[in-house]
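Hi R.,

Here's the chain you asked about this morning:
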Amino acid sequence: MNRQQVTQRALYKAQVARTLLATGMLKPTRPDRALRSAGALRRWGPTPAAAYAGSAIRYPDRAALIDDRGTLTFAEMQRRTNALAAELAAAGIGEHDGVAIMCRNHRGFVDATLACSKLGASALYLNTAFAAPQLADVLAREQPTAVIYDDEFADLVHEGAEGRKRFVAWHEPGAPSRDPLLEDLIARGDPSERPAPAEKGRVVILTSGTTGAPKGAARKEPDSIEPMAAMLSKIPLRAHGVTMIAAPMFHSWGFAHFTLALPLSSTLVLRRRFEPEDTLRAVAHHRASALALVPVMLQRILELSPDTIARYDLHALKVIALSGSALPGDLATRAMDAFGDVLYNLYGSTEVAWATIATPEDLRAAPGTAGRPPMGTIVKLLDSDGREVAPQQSGRIFVANEMMFEGYTGGGGKEMVGGLMSTGDVGHFDGDGRLFVDGRDDEMIVSGGENVFPREVEDLLADHEAIEEAAVIGVADPEFGQRLKAFVVARNGATLTEDGVKEYVRGNLARFKVPREVVFLAELPRNATGKVVKRDLAKGD
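And here is the predicted structure, written out as tokens:
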């Protein structure tokens, strides 16, 4: 490194330290506990195993996890996962083995993840909405040694995981089980401390698969806790808080909040199934300071009556953190009007992790923005030749940060230019440096010689007082080459007509952006993380 690079690195390190200090996670503790906790970090590295070991040493009696079956302390979680790791090792699972995990949000998900970390095994997280063919395809490609699943998925797993070790994470009491239960393994396993593996396992998160088969995005465990400072520089999570993760934990956003909670020694509140009022009830009852959602969940919460929302005391809630799909500006404004200026929206992807984060100030000033890059993150907008576009011009979005994925497990990766990775989206920066995502690079259509992004029309329709949600796709047209087709869900009790929707778009956007056809639906097809599955919309065309 030259002198300038050394100086920049030193300044970045100082910024990381200030950010982590502000969370309270580095507060002094009893010297003997501090030494033992530091020893665990040296042994395990910055892994889930180290984080829970450290919290069990420093805060053994503090609640680590609250789910549908009750509360577990950090000390209990440490003993449980030691015992589970011992039993899985006895079953032949060890370093470099893959373990597929098909679980909803509950203790079994966390037990399985920590046990993998303690074994040096790689965890592959399966979408709980998979159909049998998708599950079979993913397992055939990834070749995990074992599958840990909730018993509601037994038929799916047994069809796709034949010949693999299988274990049940969530089981209804009294019901028969085809495979060994994690709770039984934990009950008989050795809870004593385990030796650290020679190598850390990997984490494989599947892409959403909204435009094709889901791919496995492999990411190694970080070498330090520095990467988390990027998110904490924008999202004010604090140590020893209570985080309710309603977003699916198999998805990169739900999993990110799990990993953020680890070094913060936060209490996790989990529910196996999302229900809007129950989410508010749990946030109020446990005085949650943070709530992780995908945008469609927030939309469902806001569909509750004002009287229902007012029934719950949410004053402890300081962060509502969103990611996973586009956030309409109207939804952001309505949410902040209801819950206060506590909304934070992260734009990124399974492959690049994060790109930008919008704070409440950003969302008030420019509803619909994706925000600005957090510390240590570079975002550039490039043209088709790889050159940076001028300010306020649209370009393909490329990102560099410390947590970009290593490549798809089936081979290949995302396009790279100058060390930056493509998100697959197109966007523009406004005059204040805030990013706006115009749409998917592959969704742009050319209609009558004009470039059109469906996202712009979707955002406009979402602002209509009588429209609950909308999706727009491009379809073939014999006259114009391609045209837009809109799918609209009306708000309860609202009356809409096709001509009325077209006239609304015509009054706000250029004529070539007016959908040639409007279809009214009861709801949009979505995957388990709330993203609209546009290929399902296109099937009917």
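One quick note: Residues 240 and 266 are 4 Å apart (CA to CA).

Cheers,
M.
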